[in-house]
Amino acid sequence: MTSDDASALPLATRRDTRRLARALAGALLPGDAVVLTGSLGAGKTFLVRALCRALGLHTSVRVVSPTFTLIRELPTQPPIAHADLYRLVDPEQTRELGLLELRDRGRVLLVEWGEQHAEALGPDRLSLSILLGPRRVSLHADGPRSELLRRTVLEALRGARPPTTTPPPAPGSP
Prior knowledge:
Structural class: alpha/beta
CATH topology: Rossmann fold
CATH superfamily: P-loop containing nucleotide triphosphate hydrolases
Largest sheet: 7 strands, mixed
Strand content: 15-25%
Strand order of the largest sheet: 1-7-6-2-5-4-3
Radius of gyration: 17 Å
Number of domains: 1
Distance between the termini: 40 Å
Order of helices and strands: HEHEHEEHHEEEH
Number of strands: 7
CATH architecture: 3-Layer(aba) Sandwich
CATH class: Alpha Beta
Helix content: 25-40%
């Protein structure tokens, strides 16, 4: 098993995605950066929405992909800066958005389509790649803080999984 395999978890249902969001919410600290990758429709924005709810965002606040606004700050604890870099082609455009400054001010960065702009997002990022066929998520760290975050999330999810063994039949059942 490779380290990539060891960090891959199934996301078969929305419940699985919400469970991932809760595990991540319990581990995030101000200034963390999470890069979300995956094909169109893979569930990146759904994961962001679930994470925001897990961090206390009221259900009356809509969480949508900021494709045209590029960044949206959300009043969670810790506060989130949700960015979508799909339309950006130049790393300088990314730097001009001020994402590093938002991290410095204690915002958690959640960045959709950020894989091409990773360096402009600052060091020590956790990458969540949502893969299809079957749907699963792979977690990759590129620094000590993101590695701790990755391990904490994986441990929380693996500990929360129901046992895979079948319970013994009840007494008196055929």
